[in-house]
Design goal:
single chain, alpha+beta, eight-stranded mixed beta sheet, 11 strands, flat
């Protein structure tokens, strides 16, 4: 049974927000209220639709029990159809009522790094990066390259990008972990299948108000950027390494020719890493139960295998196998995996709510 008091409170809060937004407000307060209203507006719509359906059910039940035989028959048919739809409406509303991750609406910093497998791992890291890039393009997101270290024969040893768009973290937060590939490398004359890996980290990018970094907590080193094999690629000390002294987190950036731009990008990544570290510390319950959750985000966990000879993708956390490898790596098929992971996460959280009752 849906909590009537909570539904009433949500409707009341939405009305209060509307009243306050109609008054004269400082711009920053209006933006704050608008964000809150935008977050609960879909829930308000679902509540009103559900309650309208309950009212309709009561009206149809009355007509079905009436003396007009023709009207009663028609009402009974419509009532049966409505009764069949109500459980689905209730389930959708229950999902909307689940506590939201405050970071779900944030942009992300996506990091892909080659793991075991040498050149083949770097090529696979490139495949994964392009998969996420294409997926983001399909969502209408913007992608900004922050840092890259190309592999010797292609792909990336490491690539870091900012992805900005609605629901970016909500969509990709389950992608953190070890991704494994099984395929025959082009350089393999014997046709043997090799197994390589790459790690993915998806970090919510904090807003200015989310995290503050004190200048005194930073050690900033500058050095000359280098290319493949250590060769110098410019003659000035434009590369930047920033160390956050309290945590020991270090970020290096050398893609830009300007020291100022490298510092700005390094700070962008540092803020995201500090924000994620703070989220994990604050949510000790989630941290203690990480291993049993779909979106553990543990970068040491093998989460998915891409098997080229069989043309399949298997997500080991939810035992999902799709025989559409090319479609997934092309980006447009990734949504099927993401949707399945999201549904599984919702199912587990609903079960946890039921157990707590």
């Amino acid at each position: 049974m849906l909590p009537v008091e909570r539904l009433d409170a949500i409707i009341a809060r939405a009305e209060a927000l509307q009243d306050e937004m109609n008054a004269e407000l400082p711009p920053e307060r209006f933006v704050e209220l608008s964000k809150e209203y935008a977050a609960i507006d879909p829930l308000v719509g679902a509540i009103k639709t559900y309650r309208a359906a309950l009212d309709e059910r009561e009206e149809l039940a009355g007509l079905a029990a009436g003396d007009d035989a023709e009207m009663a028959e028609l009402a009974s048919t419509e009532l049966a159809d409505l009764e069949a739809r109500l459980p689905e409406m209730e389930h959708a509303l229950e999902i909307l009522l689940l506590p939201r991750d405050a970071a779900d609406d944030l942009n992300i910093i996506l990091e892909v790094r080659a793991g075991t497998g040498g050149d083949e791992a770097a090529l696979f890291a490139g495949d994964l990066f392009r998969m996420y890039q294409r997926y983001g393009e399909l969502q209408g997101w913007k992608c900004e390259l922050i840092n890259q270290s190309e592999g010797d024969v292609g792909g990336y040893k490491e690539v870091v990008v900012a992805m900005r768009g609605k629901g970016a973290f909500a969509a990709l937060k389950f992608e953190s972990g070890v991704h494994r590939v099984q395929r025959v490398p082009e350089t393999e004359s014997g046709g043997r299948i090799h197994t390589s890996a790459a790690t993915v980290a998806v970090l919510p990018e904090p807003e200015d108000v989310d995290i503050k970094i004190e200048e005194k907590d930073l050690r900033i080193d500058v050095f000359r950027a280098s290319g493949p094999g250590g060769q110098s690629v410019n003659t000035t000390d434009s590369a930047v390494r920033i160390t956050h002294l309290p945590t020991g987190i270090t970020v290096s950036q050398q893609d830009e020719k300007s020291q100022h731009k490298n510092r700005a990008k390094a700070m962008q990544v540092l803020r995201a890493r500090l924000f994620e570290a703070e989220r994990e510390r604050a949510d000790s319950a989630r941290a203690a139960d990480r291993k049993s959750q779909v979106g553990s985000g543990d970068r040491s966990d093998r989460i998915r295998t891409y098997n080229f000879p069989q043309g399949r993708v298997t997500d080991h956390r939810i035992n999902l196998t799709l025989h559409k490898l090319e479609k997934v790596l092309a980006g447009d098929g990734l949504s099927e995996v993401i949707d399945a992971l999201t549904r599984e996460d919702q199912t587990r959280r609903l079960a946890a709510v039921d157990e707590a009752k």
